[in-house]
Amino acid sequence: MNYRTFETDRLFIRPTVEEDAAFILELLNTPKWIQFVGDRNVHTEADAQNYIRMRMMPQLERLGYSNNTVILKEGMVKIGVCGLYDREGLDGVDIGFAFLPDYEGKGYAYEASSRVVRAAREDFGITSIKAITIEENASSRRLLERLGLKFQQKMFLEGDPVELMLYEMNLKMKICVYCASSAQIDQKYFEATETLAREFVKQGVEVVYGGGAIGLMGKLADTVLEEGGKIKGIMPQFMNEIEWAHKKVSDFEFTRNMHERKARFLEGIDGVVALAGGTGTLEELLEAITLKRLGQFTKPIIILNTAGFYDPLKQMLQRCVDERFMDERHLDLWCFVDEPGDVLDAIRKAAPWDTNAIHFATKK
After folding, report:
1. CB of 357 within 8 A of CB of 294?
2. Strand 231-236 with 251-255, pairing
3. What is the pTM of this model?
4. Mean pLDDT computed over 110-126
5. Which of 326-339 are b and which e, b meaning 16 or more Cβ less than 10 Å from the residue's Cβ?
């Protein structure tokens, strides 16, 4: 039976098989594995083969996912494991990872884990993942939090005296959409917005937007609600006082000012999508790009370039790079797409970004 394999820029990720026994033997006897995971009594290659056969393969055959061996493309070296586990005593799917000492601290664990989280959502239809670790394992806790998992509680597995920290993350995608409130624009922009909204609902995406009732904001909310989707509005209180808020959107948050609104837009989301708009949309978009450049926001930013609306912006951003106001790596801050149907795929395939971007935010 063929099982799914995945890759990133630097890594191949495939199900662990018995031929990986020598590598598994080495990994399960590293000091950190013994300290943080425990002694699995795997002391020979035969033990490792049996461990793979009895502990990993049954779940793979039953669910299509299990433990994965992580392979460095350069040299095809096996460097770690990362997988999704149906763990006894834990309700739900658990993500886990471990790497050989020589390959720690190089970003491989995050790169592999991010890809496995994406596979959980897109390929296996998993709606939430959990993770358990011990409090002393600070590097594991940091990685889980970086992946987006949140600490829930301390717990014990049945028959195990070790206190564990339980983390969890909802895998349903939540997208913030920046768009206009003008009702006098060309129909093509309304059509693009409606198409995008329908696709979001079809794919189970939760939408966050500016809360308006007219223009593209209104079209976005109306369509999501008509299709039975979930949408949240975020709006400054002064806008609500002049009755700009969409009356049918029940999930609403009113902020003290515009600054707070923009900050709330970016909390707990999986990406930003900018539709055609005026100065408000442009300001929100450029602030998100700036925060990402500084490593303060790390999610995909997708610009829907309906009928070439954003061509001038695309040229301006390219000029910023060409004239060395920005680094060439900053071209990965955003992605332009022409059609609404390309938005979600662009989010899923967006170049990885992290807080280390602060180190090349300026040109020295």
Report:
1. yes
2. parallel
3. 0.64
4. 91
5. bbeebebbbbbbee
